[in-house]
Amino acid sequence: EIDLQCTADSQLIVMHDSKINRTTTGKGVVAEMTLDSIMQFKLKNGVSIRTRHQVPTLREVLQLCKGKVLINLDKADRYFEPFLPAYAYGSADQCLHL
């Protein structure tokens, strides 16, 4: 199960919170930030230590998981229109979006 948020420039990212404060080295509201600005920051691990990883986009996750696992796209109903292009990634048969 992955949660989706949409950036100010209509890019879908994998992020549980509406803000990046808790899970990244940055601060701000996802919907008010561009993808490029979010990519400047690094993800934090479970004990808030900076990692070398960036916030993944939905496209990156779908490409990584293609043909391997079933993905439950949580909170996807809010972004139904921007989500439609995800089917072009060739992953429609392994995605649930309830």
Describe the protein in words:
This protein has 98 residues and is α/β, with parallel strands linked by helices. Helix content is 16%, strand content 14%. It has helices spanning 35-38, 58-65, 80-83, and strands at residues 2-6, 12-14, 71-74, 95-96. It has a four-stranded mixed β-sheet with strand order 2-1-3-4, with helices on one face. A hairpin with a 5-residue loop joins β1 (2-6) and β2. The longest helix has 8 residues, at 58-65. It is globular, with a radius of gyration of 13 Å. The model has no long low-confidence stretch (mean pLDDT 86).
Question: Can I get a quick summary?
Answer:
With about 100 residues, the chain is α/β, with parallel strands linked by helices. The protein has three helices and four strands.
List the defining traits of the structure above:
alpha/beta, 4 strands
Strand and helix map with partners:
Layout: E1 2-6, E2 12-14, H1 35-38, H2 58-65, E3 71-74, H3 80-83, E4 95-96
Parallel strand pairs: 1-3, 3-4
Antiparallel strand pairs: 1-2
Counting helices, strands and paired strands, the structural category is alpha/beta
The count of helical stretches stands at 3
Distance between the termini: 11 Å
β-strand amount: 5-15%
- What characterizes the major β-sheet? 4 strands, mixed
Instruction: Report the principal-axis shape.
Output: globular
Low-pLDDT stretches are none
- Approximate helicity band: 10-25%
Kindly state the number of beta strands: 4
